[in-house]
Amino acid sequence: MLKADNLSCGYGSVEAVHNVSFDVPAGSVFALLGPNGAGKTSTIMAIMGHVDIHGGSIVLDGDDITRRRAIDRVGLGISLVPEGRQLFSDLTVDENLTAGGYARPISRDAAKRDRVFGYFPRLYERRTQLAGSLSGGEQQMLAIGRALMAEPRLLLVDELSLGLMPKMVDLCLDALLQLKREGLTIVLVEQNTARALDVADQVCVLSSGVQVYRGTAAEAKAAGSMFATFLGMD
Ligand code: ATP
Question: What are the ABC transporter domain coordinates in residue numbering (predicted)?
């Protein structure tokens, strides 16, 4: 469904990611792993259209989107759950969800909102509460819910587990697995390798902007300490 071919990207003349290639089948979870500064966020920002593409291509369902604007990519069904959530903290849960659906017809809002509340009943309980007053885990649920309001086919999730209690990580990852079962394609950037391997079908490890490992999550788990070497963990 999503194909990156020899993708290089960065910030002006600074190249953060060099010649990365991967293929993400529809309805699967693909995890981008690696240490700080490896280029994981830059890679998903390239898919979203928020960084400079220096070379290579990004193809979504056969359509070359390499040069498409970010707003057009939202229209094509790509939605981002950004690192640090980036919620509108002075707006309520309901208002944040409305903001997420801005690119889609308002007539579908109620049904989509109900769907989000189905994944995250806690958000329903707190729908009139300001986003800034939610716990970290609830904010992450809201960030996922807001992204879902754009009706994505491809969901990009950056550092879901960062700073969250394990129980909240579980709740959010369970929702992503349910979404996958319903056909959504997901690209996950994660520093929590163990949790990422639990939910991913395929993984890719970046180090200093270079792809150093690619395989199925099962292969990565089986590789054990050798896989840890790719992550710079030993
Ligand atoms: P982290 O987990 O720390 O976010 P990451 O793997 O997501 O790491 P990136 O954030 O993609 O890594 O960073 C890759 C490289 O790009 C790093 O060398 C970083 O310093 C650089 N970089 C990131 N954002 C910018 C920017 N706005 N301008 C210039 N360089 C940047």
Answer: 2-233
